[in-house]
Write a structure and sequence with these properties.
Strand content: 15-25%
Radius of gyration: 23 Å
Number of helices: 7
Structural class: alpha+beta
Order of helices and strands: HHHEEEEHHEEHHEE
Length: about 230
């Protein structure tokens, strides 16, 4: 078993083992006290369990491979339909969908169909991460983004979000950009931005349109605009 010293479970487990094992032996052979011996043994057992408990129950590499596979299909659809407009993230029935229009005139109030007259509806790979990332409805936007992008997916080192009226600016530091999908990046944003759009739509409960993203040496800054869906 390879230990990840940066994992909080690893630190907790090692701490309990380092304290519990000597304390158990000292209590048993020197103090000869059953109560303290049991306490030391309990620390050893808890420490062992903590060392064997992964911080992420689903391997991150597997999650990213599955997301890349989904992006391949979305890239092919966008290319086939020659869509270039910015996507709108929509929260419906506890799930987030992504609508890519084929022009500036489109209707977000109709039924959810895959291929529509005014665009394409796709299920973004980051949608299921909301549940896996344990996003609370009572959390703030920045806390929710941090929970999914940093704590669960480890797609970046940090996230900042500034909400000004209907405009939302999300800054992602040291992101993992994922595969090279130029049409997806044009319409929906890169991997952390795409997942960020999903989280914003879920938290705000409105349509959130991807405006653009700027890539710098130390991160990515993306702009979104809230669209009221009647």
């Amino acid at each position: 078993m390879r230990l990840d010293l940066g994992d909080p479970y690893t630190g907790l487990g090692l701490g309990l083992l380092v304290f519990g094992a000597p304390f158990m032996l000292y209590s048993h052979y020197v103090l000869q006290m059953v109560t303290f011996t049991a306490l030391g043994m309990a620390c050893v057992i808890l420490g062992s369990v903590a060392l064997l408990t992964p911080s992420s129950p689903v391997p991150l590499d597997a999650v990213r491979v599955l997301m890349d596979g989904a992006y391949v299909n979305i890239e092919a659809l966008l290319e086939e339909l020659d869509l270039r407009e910015k996507a709108v993230y929509l929260s419906r029935g506890g799930r987030v969908y992504c609508f890519v229009p084929n022009g500036e005139d489109f209707d977000l109030g109709g039924s959810l169909r895959l291929v529509q007259d005014d665009g394409l509806l796709v299920f973004p790979p980051g949608s299921e991460l909301i549940g896996l990332g344990d996003v609370s409805s009572e959390a703030g936007v920045e806390d929710a983004l941090t929970s999914v992008l940093v704590d669960y997916l480890e797609a970046c080192d940090g996230v900042r979000a500034v909400v000004t009226g209907d405009d939302v600016v999300v800054s992602v530091s040291k992101p993992v950009m994922g595969g090279d999908y130029p049409r997806v990046r044009l319409c929906m944003g890169s991997l952390p931005v795409n997942v960020g759009g999903v989280v914003l739509a879920h938290m705000l409960g409105e349509g959130v349109r991807f405006v653009d993203e700027r890539v710098a040496d130390d991160g990515v800054t993306a702009r979104f605009r809230v669209i009221r869906v009647g």
